[in-house]
Every structure is written in C-alpha cells, then in structure tokens.
Amino acid sequence: MMAQTAQVIVDVATRQTDQPYDYAIPETLADQVEPGVRVIVPFGRRKLQGFVVGLSDTAAFDGKLKAIEQVLDLTPVLDPELLALSKWVATTTFSFWIATMQTMLPAAMRAKYDRTLTWTADEKPADGWGQALFRHARTVPYPDTLTAAQTRQLRAWVKADQLTVDYIVHNRAKAKTQKAVKLAPGKALTSAAAPKNAKAQQKLLTGLQTKPFTGVLTQPVAAARYGVSVATVRLAEKAGWLQSTTVNIRRNPLAIRPERDQPKRLTADQQQAADQFVAAVAAKTPQTFLLEGVTGSGKTEVYLQTIQAALDDGRTALMLVPEIALTPQMVHRVLARFGDAVAVLHSGLSDGEKFDEWRRIQRGEARIVVGARSAVFAPLANIGVIIIDEEHETSYKQDEAPRYHARNVALHRAKTFHCPVILGSATPSLESRARAEKGVYTLVRLPERINDRPLPPVHIIDMRKNSGARVQPDFSPELVAALENTLAKHEQSVLLLNRRGYSAQAMCRNCGWIARCPNCDISLTVHRAARKLVCHYCGHEEPIPTRCPVCNSDKIRFFGTGTEKVEDTLQKILPTARILRMDADSTRKKGGHARILNAFGKGQADILLGTQMIAKGLDFPTVTLVGVINADTALGMPDFRASERTFQLLTQVAGRAGRGSKPGSVIIQTYNPDHYAIQLAARQDYEGFFRREMRLRHQGKYPPYYYTVLLTISAPSETVTAQESYRIAGDLKPLLSQTAIVLGPTPRSITRINNRYYYQILVKFKKEPALGRGLHNLLTNSQALLKNKVQVAIDFEPQQIM
Ligand SMILES: Nc1ncnc2c1ncn2[C@@H]1O[C@H](COP(=O)(O)OP(=O)(O)OP(=O)(O)O)[C@@H](O)[C@H]1O
Ligand SMILES: [Zn+2]
Ligand SMILES: [Zn+2]
C-alpha cells in the first residue's frame, strides 16, 4: 500500500517549528515522495520548502491534512544514512534539524537557483515528449509544469544515467564546456583525404584508422592521443573527417593535474601502523586509532596506503584536512595517487564547483573525498575508512550553528559503516590522547622522522633581554644572524608571526587615543596597504585619520606587530632577501594560498613570512630555518587551552625545518622562556607536555576530565542580557548534581560586538543526565527570550572560551 502521509521538516529555523509536520500525499505525487526529497508545502499562509523525513500509512487527523504541493527532487538528496545522521547531529549539538540537513547540501541546492535538465545519453529520448523537450538543445530549463507521468519519466532517465538535473549558479562558475570532436559518420578516412605532404594530417589519418575512438574527445585529448597538435585536429574538423562538438567538463577545483605517483616503500614503523589500519578496514571494525607521529614521520603515506586498501575492498574513503586551502600540498599528494577518483570539497570553491564535486560523490564517480570540516557530510556510500589529519585543529569544530565537531560526526558515521577512523597528528588534542590512554582509541606511534632525519634543534631567545636603542623590537640579533646566514647559503626560511589577538593599531602619541570600532568593544586594525582601519569582528571600515579626533594633534602612530609592518622591517634588515608574505590579506584572492606556496616551493623567494596558516602540513625540503617572532601571544588568552594551543603551534611550525637532506634549526623568540609549553615544544616532547598539562586540567577541573557546555546569551541591551543570563543560570542550577560547576554569568571579554552584548555561562560536569533535556527546554519554552530579542547559543565542548 502507498503511504498516505509524509513527515516534513519545513525550512523555518525556530524552536517552535523544529519538528516534523504531517502532510497528505496527493495520488499524483505518490511515487515521488520518499524520505530525503525536498518538497514545497503550504505552511500557514506561506509556501515553504521542506524535507521529507518519513512516511506513514495513516493520517494523523483524517482528511484535515494539507497536501504536499510539489516535489523538488527526482531522487532523494539525502540518503537514509545522512537523514538519520542529520537528526543525530541536531540533537547532540542543540541545533535545528532543518539547519543540519541544509548544512549537508551544497549551497547551490540551498538557495533559490534555477534548475536545468541536460540530456547526457548518446541516443535520443525514446518517447515523443522527451524528443520535443530536447529538440533544440541538450540543456533546457526545468519545465514549470509537469504531469505525474512526465515526472516519472524524468526520474527513470536520471536512474538510467541519461539525464542530469543541474543548478544554474549565478556567481562566478557556469557549467564549463570545452571544444571536442567525434568521428564523422560515413567519412572514408583514407590517406587521400589530406594532401600527401601534410605530414601531421597524414599521421592523424593513419592514427584514426588504426586506433579509432568512439564517443567524444576534447581537442587536446584527441591531439595527444594521435601525437599531433590541436591545430591539426582543427584542420581535420575543417576537412570534415572529424565533427566538432562540445562537452561539459567538470569545473576542476584546484586545476592541478599532478603527475601520478606510486606508493612508497614503507618504513618499519609506517608498516606496523598501516598493517593495523588495513586489518581494521578488512575486518570492518569501527575502531578508532590515534596516529601520533612526529612532524615529518610520513603519516600521509600511511593514510594513502590505507585508502588504497579500502578501495581495493570495493569501498570508499573520506579524508578530512584542516581548511584545505591551507594545505594544497596535501590535496596534491592525494590527487597524485588517486587521480580522478578524488573529489575535493573546501570553502575556496565556488558554489558551482562544490555542486559538481558533491554530485560526483553522490553518483559514485568519486570514491575518495578530501575536504575540510563540512566534507564529513559527503554523500559517500559504503565508507571503508575515515581519516582526520591534524585532528587537534580547532577548525574541525564549527563555531556557529550547527556547532558540530567533525571528529564526533566521523565517529558516528564510522559506527554506521563499520569502518575504522584514523586520527592523525604530531600534537594530538588532549581529549584524543586521553582517550587513547584509557584504551577507547588505539594508540599507534611514529616516533621518528623519515630517513632518520633528526628533528631540528630549537633555540629559545629571551626577548626580555632584547632591549636598548639599537635593537629591532621584533628581531633579536640571533634571529637576524640566522636569517642572514641562511640567505648566504641560498637556503630558505619560514617566519611565523603569531597574530592571534595581536595586530597593528592606530594611536595618538599626544593624548593616548586609540581608534576603536563604533559597534564593538575592540580597537580597529590598521591595514596600511589599503589605508584603512578595519574591525575584524563586524567588518566596519574607516579611513586612517590624519589628526586625532580628541586632541587634534597630528601625531597618529601605529603600534603592534602586523604582518605588513614586520615585512617592512625585515626588508630593511635584509635588503636583498626576497620575501613572500602569507596572511589573510595576501591570500584573500582565490587560489592565493596555492600561488604563494607554489612560488616559495620553486625557490622564487628566500623567506616565507606568515601567520598561523604557514604552520601546518607544509613539506618543503629546502627550508632549513624556522623563526617564531612572538611565541607568547596565544599564551595570554583567557582560555584554559592557551598552553595547549601554544605548544601545538610551536611544535608544528618547528617541524617545518630540516625535512630535506640539509639539517634545520629553529629560533623561538619569547618573553616567557621558562614556560613549560615553550620549553617542551622546543624539545618536541609531546608526551611530556601531555602529562604535565593533564595534571593542570585535573586540578582545574577542565576537559578532558570534565565536559563543558558554554551558554552565550546576547541581546541589544546590556541590562536585558545580564538579567536573562542570571535567570537562565538560576533555572539551570536546580537541574544539576553537586559535582557540576557553573561559572558565571560573566560578560564575554569582548562584551559588545555589532551592537549586541554577550554574556557567558560555562557549565563543567562529569555526568548530568538531566542537562541535555534541561537545555532543550530552556530554548523551547522561553517566551521571555523571544520577546526581549535575546539569543541563546549552546556550545557543547566549546573550542574557544573568552
Ligand atoms: N616510506 C617513505 N619513504 C620515503 N619517503 C617517505 C616515506 N614516507 C613519507 N616520505 C616522505 O617524507 C616526507 C614527510 O612525510 P609527511 O609529510 O607525510 O609527514 P607527516 O608525518 O605528515 O608530517 P607533518 O605532520 O609534519 O605534516 C614527505 O616528503 C614524504 O614524501
Ligand atoms: Zn590625541
Ligand atoms: Zn566592529
């Protein structure tokens, strides 16, 4: 019997509507409504989009149900696994179900884009309606009105791979076509078809006779196949023995086609790691491994060989990397090993490109997915292994709703697919390392660098002694000497400017006025190249003033260390050095990262100066010196993870030195030379750091000993924000046991952003069965919140507490 009722989640992100609504299924749509398709339904006075999440045979209240008006998808956009996952993510992150479902889809499908139909099969549609539809073009607008039979026909074509539905994305990317050729039917391809002395054309003719092709080849591919130039292929078209046509080509995200490489012979350590992973793939055990491998220990090669094992087993593989644009090298390596079987998903892609990749995955054309955080929702079926590289990275946690952590989502999917998860890092998060300690994860270590290369020696420079009139504030004499030395040897250096909370500000030297944002409690940052002051929180911009608005003096000066300013100073110290700067400004343009890294890799610069983004994953064998200009800025943050972050950053960046045959060295400038995070990072002693930091977390009752939930309450009025925060804290406390700890409410360290005030409550707990429901009720039932324009954000295991 056909289902009569569909449960639909409508596209309204409020607590009140965050539940399935019943809709009747009209008979004409009966065979189109399935879980995972999107529909248009009447909702109040509006028509809304929604997702079908379930079907049932009986109506909840007979006859009174409104009916589904339209089905948007010919095939489900979310399969049962992803549908169930979206629900789980919504529950565990206190998000709206609609929001998690939307997060899983490429943006092109979310907005109101126009749809098209493209006939992809060689032969024409069999029936008259289809032939009429595609009479003038292979791609036509999606018809406005379709009968049920016609929709059924479209669905059948899609299932038979004869038809695709596309979204016209108006920004940047349009579907790309390339000129192509096919054999002209009925043309005799004899050598008489071209002049005897036209050698290239004769060569092509011979090739076409001895090695003919079917279907369509792009001009360059045809040229390569027959060893002639593209011009010759064009001549052949003119002569009529090849027919010209076009093909849709995939918008290739990174536009790189690296040379294919072969698996490397593993070292003994790599082999024992790979053996365990491959065994878990084969045995289909949802086991979680923590691969703790020092920088340059060859973790990537182990990932690649494990992926190969999953593919050989007929399964697929998912590999997450932190914000992929930051690691073009990693993507390059995966593409070099697996070529077209790889789909790449990351935030640098246009909507059209993302959609292309997503569809290749959904259709099973791409069996390996490499991507940043949201790629954890890639529509892969039959996953054989999930890898999370640099698992300690905070970018795996989304810091806006839905506040999911990709690691947790990965672990959940792995359970569904019965596949192992590999968490890799030189500096694992304390949470993961502690789980390995307890035996929840299996610890696998790579303690040595490849080819017995030593880890580089690290020198700590005490910047408190770097004073006096003649010294440069940002460059100790030791660092300058090392840079000069490296330059003289024609080797390369990497310089890290740790900019977190540290940027150039404009100040009046006469009265002390500092340029501040009118909307936020934060000073504005100087962007000298653009001659602007910019707020990094709300985006407010204003010109740099020439006179102080308070005392009218013209002594406006800049202070603080911006990357631009350091670059200027560095150029003065080393006039002949070729410097490349890599920060948010210099990489804003698409592909900016890849371009800078590429230039540096080719030896077009001597020094790569950059922010955090240069610390991770770079593998340049020619780098022999790494300098850290200011190691301390992260230490000063009011966050219990400050030491962990500092340790991770310094260890990672130090690991960029000496990866090739020449030995490297590292210089760390700091005002806290005795701090354990800096001392242990200098020794690359992860285990030592782990033990020490664990003791402190235990004393302070912080993760991984305690769980944390952060409530952030905001409103346009500070009084309302404070009142509501105290009320919420008061409501929560009775729900909690004696062992739970409630910190706050306290104003956030930057209390006002974009003219809203922010207060926080941090709950630390070990086991609170009633907390989840309590928080849920708080959000659902609170009319007061709505009335006062109060927003409450709930963040389970927040990565940033400020
Ligand atoms: N078995 C092997 N034989 C030879 N070279 C190898 C082998 N495995 C890896 N390499 C090379 O060693 C270098 C370091 O490896 P890789 O970048 O994978 O290390 P990693 O552990 O990911 O480092 P990091 O954590 O610093 O990013 C790379 O250039 C890689 O090509
Ligand atoms: Zn002034
Ligand atoms: Zn602002």
TrEMBL record:
Reaction(s) catalysed by this chain's protein: Couples ATP hydrolysis with the unwinding of duplex DNA by translocating in the 3'-5' direction; ATP + H2O = ADP + phosphate + H(+)
Location of the Helicase C-terminal domain: 543-697
Subunit details: Component of the replication restart primosome.
Domain of life of the organism encoding this protein: Bacteria
Domain Helicase ATP-binding: 280-446
Family: Belongs to the helicase family. PriA subfamily.
Function text: Initiates the restart of stalled replication forks, which reloads the replicative helicase on sites other than the origin of replication. Recognizes and binds to abandoned replication forks and remodels them to uncover a helicase loading site. Promotes assembly of the primosome at these replication forks.
Protein known as: Replication restart protein PriA
Documented EC number(s): 5.6.2.4
UniProt-listed PROSITE patterns: HELICASE_ATP_BIND_1 (PS51192), HELICASE_CTER (PS51194)
Organism: Schleiferilactobacillus shenzhenensis LY-73
Entry keyword set: ATP-binding, DNA replication, DNA-binding, Helicase, Hydrolase, Isomerase, Metal-binding, Nucleotide-binding, Primosome, Zinc
Molecular function via GO: 3'-5' DNA helicase activity; ATP binding; ATP hydrolysis activity; DNA binding; zinc ion binding
Named cofactor requirement(s): Zn(2+)
Gene: priA
